[in-house]
Specification:
The protein is 37% helix and 27% strand. By secondary structure, it is of the alpha+beta class.
Length: 89
């Protein structure tokens, strides 16, 4: 396996942004079975040209951080379930 990236752009909780999941072979582990998962739960500021300070960004992080962590864990769990299923075939 080299790398696979999937991106979801139609989301119920935001007008702009995406969730991108990238799964690839780990280069930091000595094991040939190491896997690296990168989940980017991206939110966009509505209109950066009118934004002053960082209140909107802080509010997004504050309001949605826990849900984002749970979603990231769920995505990784789904990938690992596929790997276990494939190993049992």
């Amino acid at each position: 396996m080299q790398s696979i990236t999937m991106q979801q752009t139609l989301l119920d909780d935001r007008e702009n942004g995406y969730i991108r999941a990238k799964i690839e072979r780990s280069t930091s582990l000595k094991s040939p079975f190491g896997v690296r998962a990168d989940i980017n739960d991206h939110y966009a500021i509505d209109d950066p040209s009118t934004a002053t300070g960082c209140e909107e960004a802080v509010s997004i992080v504050s309001d949605r951080f826990e849900a984002s962590l749970k979603r990231s864990a769920w995505i990784i769990d789904q990938v690992m379930a596929l790997a276990r299923s494939k190993a049992n075939d």
